[in-house]
Amino acid sequence: MRRAASTEHLFLAPHYRAKQAQSLIIVLFDSGPLQLGSCRLVHIAMLILLARRAEQVGARLRWGVLQHSTELYEFSSPEHLQQLLKTRTYYPVNAEHICQWQLKLQDYHDSMGERWLVGGDASIDLWPGKEISHRVIVQPTQDSETLEVQLRDGSHCRRITLPLPATNIARQLIRGQFQVMVSHQSNQNHRLSLMFPPIISSHGSCVGVTLLDEPGVVLFKVPRLNDSNIVKQASKPVRQHMPSGWQILAMHCQGKMAGALLSQGDTLTFWQTNKLSSFQKPEHRDFQTTVARANLQPSAYLTDGQSAAMYVLDRGHQLVLFSSSADSMRLIMTGVLGIARMGDNALAYICYRNNVLHQVVTDLRNVSHYYSLGYTAPENTSVMFAFQRRHHLGYPCAIQMKSDTSEVWRIHNLSINDLTVDVSLPEGWKAIGLYYSSVTPDKDAIANLLLINLNKRSIGRYFDGQLEKLYTTPTSKIVRKTFCPVSGLLALLTEAKELIVYSVHENTLRLFSQRIGGGNDE
User: Fold this and answer.
1) 84, 112, 163 from 175: Cα distances, Å
2) 326: left (phi over 0), alpha (psi -120 to 50) or beta
3) 293/401 same-domain check
4) Degrees to nearest 5, angle at CA 149 with 436 and 92
């Protein structure tokens, strides 16, 4: 319902092909007491859907309210949705209302097209005549967590049960707050490169993207939600210039500053990375990197203000450490499958130890805690981590056990309930992240797997055996993506040079930056 109200897609649309309508489609709503609250979400969705339907078949759309005067309104802007929501009444539909509207519709006999009636059982039954071509019955289910919707078209009847959106989102929509759900930007001053994935600050305040035609990063401030859960307007992006002639090995974002590990000849240097400067480049066998497109090394920059450390995972599955307290690189662990930064001063990684998978949690001084997972996994398997504040027994994580036509992931709910669950994903979807709805989940919490469709257009979540689509890009495929388990932000770059930032914790699109730059990356 939230996505329908945001005009992202038409998931409530009838599944039959629209017939060529005549010049006018009319929809009448029951705004009485039995249709207040969650039922109004379907009213919003139906008005949007019918507007699209009218546009597709070359018709006009007019709408009215059964309990109000027999006046029909047009629909062309979000203000008209707000007008619909303001028509709520506290008395039900009666026979007099129906009689008045029957007389009114006779005025439009020459332009007869589809006639829709949306309301509860009682109001629908009051109008059995053939003047109405489609009837939509909306009513909450007994558990009050879903809505039952029936579509009656002549002798045919279709039923669907719709889950309600999150409470804050539903409240926002019912209040008519759907015009500024996301901060849009259209900026032609920065040409973005699609070479590297975006970088996200661990607290979710900024997202950085490399520039196309000069060394550097453009940093986008992610707008915050205000007290009404409305995304505030974003400030202008800021360029941060790198020194020329250096090749990027790893990148990070700390606060309002982008940082990077750069390579040139036999020297490694840290750009805009507090407390770290330059190091002698080790032999290739000790630090295996390849300077190539889209080939950033996984890394984590940790700091407490007094000291700093950068952990980097090389192509040979070696985890190495650059520290402000040492003048050379240090090898920490071999056989490492994946790493994730968990706040300013913690790193989690999965590695082989005595031929058994372990999760290791360490800090910038390399004080480590080991948690055995008790089994082995295929070589070069993928791993993911979920952030939570209580991690006395490690962070929740997921190990990929199968990567054929449908992926299988083994989820370890460490520090929550210590349960291990194998999850088979629907065919055509790949996991790109792991998270919980709260950063302090209770013992019965179930992990969400963040997914991307193989068409590279849709993002979804897999939760308790159910797949839910979260977002679909307007036109272009996703070419680069980054998920931050701490902030819950997903940053996407599309073929059209769009930067999209989505919050999985708030189920909200936070930033949409359109078509910055053009041309090829070559």
Assistant:
1) 11, 33, 19
2) beta
3) yes
4) 115
Strand, helix or coil for residue 110: helix
Domain that holds residue 396: 183-514
Question: Does residue 405 share a domain with residue 264?
Answer: yes
The CA radius of gyration of the chain, in Å to the nearest whole number, is 27
Same structural domain, 333 and 467? yes
pLDDT at 16 over 70: no
User: How long, in residues, is the chain?
Assistant: 522
CA dist 24 and 61 (Å) reads 6
Check pLDDT > 80 for residue 453: yes
Query: Per the domain annotation, does 520 fall within a domain?
Result: no
Mean pLDDT, to the nearest integer, of 245-258? 93
Domain finish residue from 115, 150, 174 = 174
Average pLDDT for 281-308: 86
**Does residue 309 share a domain with residue 243?**
yes
Confidence (pLDDT) at 181? 47
pLDDT in tens, 497-512: 899 999 998 888 889 8
**Do 278 and 417 belong together in one domain?**
yes
Task: Name which of 223, 192, 224 is nearest 208 in CA terms.
Answer: 192
Write the CB contacts of 127 (distance below 8 Å, at least 6 apart in sequence).
98, 101, 102, 117
How many domains does the structure of the chain reveal?
Answer: 2
The Cα–Cα gap between 354 and 464 comes to 34
Alpha-carbon gap, residue 301 to 297, rounded angstroms: 12
- How does strand 115-119 pair with strand 24-29? parallel
Q: Are residues 92 and 205 in the same domain?
A: no
Q: What is the pLDDT of residue 172?
A: 76
Is the same domain home to 187 and 164? no
Instruction: Classify residue 522: in a domain, yes or no.
Output: no
CA–CA distance, 443 with 211 (Å, rounded to integer) = 44
Q: Please, what's the b/e burial string for 426-455 (b: 16 or more CB within 10 A of its CB; e: otherwise)?
A: eeebbbbbbbbbebebeeebbbbbbbbbee
Same domain? 11 vs 122 = yes
pTM equals 0.69
